[in-house]
Amino acid sequence: MLIPETWLRSFCDPALPGRALADKLTMAGVEVETYEPVGPSFSGVVVSEVLAVEKHPNADKLTVCKVKAGKDTLQVVCGAPNVRVGMKAPLAKVGAKLPGLEIKATSLRGVESQGMLCSARDLGLSTDHSGLLELPGNAKPGSDARTALGLDDHILTLKLTPNRADCLSVLGVAREVAAVTKSKLKPVEIKAVSAKSKAKHAVKLASPEGCGRFAGRVIRGVDASAKTPAWMRERLERAGQRSISALVDVTNYVMLELGRPLHVYDLDKLRGPIVVRWGRKGEKVLLLNEQEVEVDEQVLCITDDSGVIGLGGIMGGESTKADENTKNVFLESAFFYPDAIAGRARRYNFASDASHRFERGVDFKNNVDGIERATRLILDMCGGEPGPTVDTVARLPKRKPVAMRVARAQKLIGVPVPAKEMASAFSRLGFESSFKKNSFTVKAPSYRFDIAIEEDLIEEVARLYGFERIAAHPPRVAATMLKVPEAQRSPHLFRERLAAADYREVINFSFVEPQWENDFGRPDSSGEAPIRLLNPIVSQQSVMRTSLIGSLISKIQYNHARKVPRIRIFEVGRVFLRDAGAKDGPLSVGGLRQPMRIGAAAYGPALREQWDTPPRPVDFFDVKSDLESVLAPLAPRFEPAAHPAFHPGRSARVLVGVTPVGWIGELHPKWQEKYELPQAPVLFEVDAEPLQMAPLPSPVIPPDFPIVVRDISMLFPLETPVQAIFDAIEAEKPAIVRVVTLLSLFRGQGVPADRKSLAFRVVMQHTERTLTDAEADAARDALVALLGRKFAASLRT
Fold it and tell me: Per-residue DSSP letters for 244-267?
């Protein structure tokens, strides 16, 4: 928004220089992005009047002019084709400094020149160099040309937020200036123009929820080809509007001055009464920007008997526009609800000044003022015979009172602003307010659409009080030690252990492809469909994940396609599960659980390439070992179980004690083939929460006595799980047995087909004395008897 300073000061002229005024507005929340002069800097240029023009004796395209510049009469050589006796033009006297040029006394083709008559380009005002810049006829010869051209004016470029639609006019900004500087507001005096005919045009508001008010006036016998006065063209151009025609310039001028968009129809082109209604499917209209658009039931339209003639609050139509041949006009000043206009112009890939204002909120009480102001300007410029102003009101917004507690405002602002100063701020802003029981009840004016809640009023008080008066105190936070149970572990610990095991962390989206959920769904889930997103960023990622496996497989596939030979990745993230019984808490909300999971995958060689070890692919037991080291000291247990993502004979459920916490396994061959992986990756996925509590270490004095080792090799039935053997040993082992480890598994020659050979190493130690061979053998025999009794195992001979 561009605001000429002279125009602004005609409404409110505080005793502040322009730069200080710009700073005041910025600190009050109306940001002034730039404050710049209208024209470039130059000096020594005065108004001159051409007294005589003679042909140059030695050049066909030059003339010798006698010009009057105050008391002096000077001779100037000029090459402009439009120079003539009686015209007034800028004269750069000897010593004048123009943009990139200093004027000196010179001789042109033998004739002395005591200065230079200037074009607009010479002064840096435009690129026009076709002739001299003609000055107004009332300009006084010898006076400063900058003053005559109004070049001492400045332009304020405002960077407005969408909620401050009231500042999209000179009057609106002047209200802010008056409120901020406590100066007097002098709005333009608008007097009703008396009707000189009874001419009217019928208007019907068929959709009052879109258009709540419509004021109109017929003016007959206008001269639409009349020239826009220079003062209006100048103000429009400095406010960023180009001059088009007298009638259009008037509507733009009133919009910039009062914030009231208007539209002018050629009365003779209207077919029947104007009806404001929602569009109908299939209707089309050719707009003033020569763009034909199709409307529907979501677009508010201005219509007559011929159909749609404009888009309400956005742009008029080509069929009824006023042009230089127009004799009779119908002037429109309507109020459109912001919700009925917002987004419609962008839908058609264009924007207009009217839509920019209406979709943010336009004063619904100045419709008639806009009509009267525009009527007076049209009559002064184009003449004509006005009819009566017809104001049709159907439905207008109601301003609801908003309460503001003084104590609440002081707390949020951080400064004990007195209630008296708050009342003063509301008064300067034009708000109606009353004070009772330490609370204000405030009613915003019709041009403020941004005042709806208590915080809006607090913001108004703060900015009128002055943000610069609010001290900047750094936040003070009490340094309180958090109570963290010593036995509770952070998920970062698992990250550190996986990184130490040569895994790299990945971070994936929580929304995934539906196919991943179909392929890798968990067997212990409810079986319900995953949670579907209402508005996915891409169609492929349309559901919330219930497992980390799909994301990990995707990253393996991505890296394998880029020739990465050895891949170790992990992720710590949430999954999203339906659970009607879930109560609101940190991990669940609204019937949904969001547990944290730890997932990892290994692909390629088990070890990095090295010279003394032959390469082999990673297998189930490599990843199982990594998982055991990550979860230590919890000593997880593993039991064979089927998972839809894993190989039927190479997967297991992970348990801590008797609680299932996750899965581990090799990828199923069918998914290996589908995702085009030459080798099956090995993955695990476990819940983080049950793993975060770990027993505290117990200090034990190491015995001073030597250990005794015995190896046992026994035959077991093929279906006997090794975990069950360890569970039995742990439950009934002799007291001197410290550790039992599995040395080997053998099936083949010398072992019955229905049996397998397991070799164990038993480490024994007494805490108070040295063991004898007899005690060690007895403990070994006790273990052999235990395994024979529990599993029908026999010693291998």
Answer: --HHHHHHHHHHHHHS---EEEEG
- CB neighbours (10 Å) of residue 725? 21
Confidence check: pLDDT of 443 > 80:
yes
Helix (H, G, I), strand (E, B) or coil at 593: strand
**pTM for this model (two decimals):** 0.64
- Reported as a single tens digit per residue, the pLDDT across 351-380 is 999 999 999 999 999 999 999 999 999 999
Q: What is residue 361's three-state secondary structure?
A: coil
Q: Are the CB atoms for 52 and 66 separated by under 8 Å?
A: yes
Contacts of 180 (CB under 8 A, 6+ apart): 24, 25, 28, 464
- Name the residue type at position 759: A
CA–CA distance, 449 with 166 (Å, rounded to integer) = 8
**What is the 3-state secondary structure of 520-579?**
HCCCCCCCCCCCECCCCCCCCCCEECCCCHHHHHHHHHHHHHCCCCCEEEEEEEECCEEC
Q: What pLDDT is recorded for position 217?
A: 96
Higher pLDDT, 313 or 130: 313
Instruction: Find, among 201, 232, 191, the residue nearest to 376 by Cα.
Output: 191
Contacting residues for 622 by C-beta, under 8 A, at least 6 apart: 602, 606, 682
The identity of residue 734, as a single letter, is P
Estimate to the nearest angstrom the gap between the alpha carbon of 706 and the chain centroid: 71
Q: Cα separation of 142 and 92, whole Å?
A: 11
Helix, coil or strand: residue 402: strand
374-378, 512-516, 522-526 — which is least confidently predicted? 522-526
- Decide if pLDDT at 479 tops 90: no
Degrees (nearest 5) of the Cα angle 145, 146, 151? Answer: 145
Among residues 218, 515, 208, the alpha carbon closest in space to that of 374 is found at: 218
pLDDT in tens, 757-767: 999 999 999 98
Per the model's pLDDT, the better-predicted residue between 502 and 478 turns out to be 502
Q: What is the Cα–Cα distance from 57 to 456, expressed in whole angstroms?
A: 75
For residues 762 and 736, the answer to whether their CB atoms sit within 8 Å is: no
Amino acid at 16: L
Rounded mean pLDDT of the chain? Answer: 91
Whether the pLDDT of residue 223 is over 90: the answer is: yes
Q: Do 552 and 560 touch, CB atoms closer than 8 A?
A: no
> Is residue 422 within 8 Å of residue 371, measured between CB atoms?
no
Residue pair 303/309 in contact by the 8 Å Cβ criterion: yes
**CB 261: neighbour CB atoms within 10 A?**
26
**First CA to last CA across the chain, in angstroms?**
99
Q: List, for residues 159-218, the tens digit of each pLDDT value.
A: 999 999 999 999 999 999 999 999 999 999 999 999 999 999 999 999 999 999 999 999
Distances (CA, A) of 481 to 95, 172, 478, 485, 489: 76, 53, 9, 12, 17
d(CA 425, CA 447): 17
